[in-house]
Amino acid sequence: MKITFYGHNTLLIEVNHINVLIDPFISGNPLSKDKVDINTIKTDYILLTHAHQDHILDAEAIAKKNDATIVSNYEIAMYYQNLGIEVHPMNHGGNCSFNFGKVKYVNAIHTSSFPDGTYGGQPGGFVIEGEHKTIYIAGDTALTMDMKLIPMNTKLDLAILPIGDNFTMGIDDAIIASDFIACDKVLGVHYDTFGYIEIDHDEAKRKFFEKDKDLMLLGIGESIEL
Ligand code: NI
Ligand code: MN
Known about the structure:
This protein is of the alpha/beta class. The protein contains five helices and 14 strands. The chain is globular.
């Protein structure tokens, strides 16, 4: 499983020779818009955690260009189906096996409305299992006790957690989240994009290190292999 970071919560996951794009927000991201061309992204699926602009901005364009299937909660799936896009609706607690691996839509505490005010259902995260690796993409969320449910039936190899504070968990809560989900290997996302969520990278890494945990922060376009 290869994971490439395109800024904010945008990730391209290559698993079982299938490309899965998460929360595409590139053309409006000041940190990535000049580094990543959305027209060159190749993907088979687009997974959306919730309907906020900073998670869905480029979903329609990329889905249409690639004939990609959008996977999200029911309300978000119907929104894109009405735009003529292939969708697969899910909802909280549900698993589904796709040709790239197994996906579970899990709880998040946040909000979810489209930029035009359309109801975007309840926000979520994804647990994705493929090539004998399992990752958790929390999406935008507060620290929540529901995270303790995740390790009850899965063993995570990597957790992708928001760390920017203000709109989501910050560093200190992300460290507690990593205990709740029983995964000490964390890729931080949802930081630095706007003024509200700028973080001190060294301090963030040090705080994880002091708890015997590993916080990775990738540059735009950088990848990790699991
Ligand atoms: Ni959000
Ligand atoms: Mn967000």
